[in-house]
Write a structure and sequence with these properties.
- This protein has two domains: about 90 residues, Rossmann fold (3-Layer(aba) Sandwich); about 130 residues, NAD(P)-binding Rossmann-like Domain (Rossmann fold).
- It has ten helices and eleven strands.
- A six-stranded parallel β-sheet has the order 1-11-8-7-5-6. It has a three-stranded parallel β-sheet with strand order 3-2-4, with helices on both faces. The protein has a two-stranded antiparallel sheet with strand order 9-10.
- Helix 1 runs parallel beside helix 10 and helix 6 crosses helix 10.
- The model has no long low-confidence stretch (mean pLDDT about 95).
- The structure holds NADP nicotinamide-adenine-dinucleotide phosphate.
- NADP nicotinamide-adenine-dinucleotide phosphate (NAP) binds next to helix 10.
C-alpha cells in the first residue's frame, strides 16, 4: 500500500484556524500582535520567503511590516534598528531574514534581539532554554516537524528518531525538542552528519527518519526500514528544462521510491515548508501574549 501522505499544507491550515482564535483573544483585549521583519538586500529567495510570511501573518490576524535596508547597509545600522524594535512596545516579534550579506556578522545580530521577541528562536538564551527542557518558544521548522508527526498520528514517544543533519537551524533543535521527557517528544534520537560512518545502517534503524541535509534525493529506498515514517525537511532546486523557471523543488529523499516502502511521508513541496511559516505565527502570538500579560496557550 502506498504511504500516507502527511500534508503540511492541510495540517498548517488547521493550526492557522487555532492561531486565529488566539489572535482574536488578543485583539479583544486591545492587543494587536505585531511582527517586524528586517531584510538587508534583495536576495530573491529571501524576498519570496518574506512575502509568504507577510501573507500568512495576514491570514491569522498578525500585523506585519518589513523593513528593507540596501545590500551595503552597515552592521551598526542593522543593530540600531534592532535596538529600536526591542524598545518598541507595539512590536512583539522581531525576525531578521538570513542569510545576511557577508560584511555583517550573523551572531551579534541574533544576540542583539530581545529574547522575548526572538520569534525565530535563534538567540542563545532561547536555544539553551530549549535544551534544558524549559523552552520559551520553539524554533519554527523543528516545531513544524513535531506537529506533523503528532497531528499526523505518529507521535515520536518511545520511537527511534534518526535525524540526518546537525545544523543549528534544523537538526540540533529538533534533537532538543524530541529528546525531552514530554508528551509529543520522549523519543530516542540519533543525529547523523557527514562524518557518520555507514549512514544507511543507522537510517535503517529509524522508526521515524528526518532528512535535513540539503542533499537532493540522497535518502534512497534501501536506507529506509519498511513501514518507517519519513519527514523530508530538504528544499533543493534541481534543473528542469520542462519548467518555465528552469528548475523544480525536490527534497532530500527519493520520494517516488520511498512512497511504496514507508508508512507515511511528507511531500516536497507541501510538507514541512508550509509548517515553518505557520509556526512563526504561533511564536509571534505566544510572544505577544507573554509581553502583554495575556497568555494565549
Ligand atoms: N522546509 C523548510 O521550511 C526548511 C527550512 C530550513 C531549511 N530547509 C532545507 O533543509 C535542508 C537543510 O538545511 P540546513 O540549513 O539545515 O542545512 P545545512 O546548514 O547545510 O546543514 C546540513 C546538515 O546536513 C549534513 N549533511 C549534508 N549532507 C549529508 C550527507 N550526505 N550525509 C549525512 N549528513 C549530511 C551536514 O553535515 P555536516 O555538519 O557534517 O556538514 C549538516 O549537518 C536544505 O535543503 C534547506 O533548504 C527547509
Amino acid at each position: 500500500m502506498p504511504a500516507k501522505v502527511l500534508s503540511g499544507k492541510d495540517i498548517s491550515a488547521d493550526i492557522k484556524t487555532e492561531l486565529q482564535a488566539k489572535s482574536d483573544q488578543l485583539h479583544e483585549q486591545g492587543v494587536t500582535p505585531r511582527l517586524m521583519m528586517v531584510r538587508v538586500g534583495e536576495d530573491p529567495a529571501s524576498v519570496s520567503y518574506m512575502k509568504q510570511k507577510e501573507k500568512t501573518a495576514g491570514q491569522v490576524g498578525v500585523d506585519s511590516e518589513t523593513v528593507v535596508f540596501p545590500e551595503d547597509a552597515s552592521e551598526e545600522t542593522l543593530l540600531s534598528k534592532i535596538t529600536e524594535l526591542n524598545e518598541d512596545p507595539t512590536c512583539h516579534g522581531i525576525l531578521v531574514q538570513l542569510p545576511l550579506p557577508r560584511h555583517i556578522s550573523q551572531d551579534p545580530v541574533i544576540e542583539a534581539i530581545d529574547p522575548k521577541k526572538d520569534v525565530d528562536c535563534f538567540h542563545p538564551q532561547n536555544v539553551g532554554r530549549l535544551l534544558i527542557g524549559n523552552p520559551y518558544l520553539l524554533p519554527c521548522t523543528p516545531h513544524g516537524v513535531q506537529q506533523i508527526l503528532v497531528r499526523g498520528g505518529y507521535s515520536p514517544e518511545g520511537k527511534h528518531v534518526v535525524v540526518c543533519g546537525r545544523s543549528n537551524l534544523n537538526g540540533k533543535p529538533l534533537f532538543g525538542i524530541l529528546i525531552q521527557k514530554r508528551t509529543g517528544a520522549n523519543a530516542t534520537v540519533t543525529v547523523c552528519h557527514t562524518s557518520t560512518r555507514d549512514l544507511a545502517d543507522i537510517t535503517r534503524q529509524a522508526d521515524i527518519l528526518v532528512a535535513a541535509m540539503g542533499a537532493p534525493k540522497s535518502i534512497t529506498a534501501d536506507m529506509v526500514k519498511e513501514g518507517a515514517v519519513v519527514i523530508d525537511v530538504g528544499v533543493n532546486r534541481v534543473e528542469d528544462p520542462s519548467k518555465k523557471s528552469g528548475f523544480r523543488l525536490v527534497g532530500d529523499t527519493d520520494y517516488d521510491a520511498l512512497v511504496d516502502k514507508a508508512e507515511a511521508i511528507t511531500p516536497v513541496p507541501g510538507g514541512v515548508g508550509p509548517m515553518t511559516v505557520t509556526m512563526l505565527m504561533w511564536n509571534t502570538l505566544t510572544a505577544a501574549g507573554v509581553q502583554s500579560g495575556i497568555p494565549v496557550d
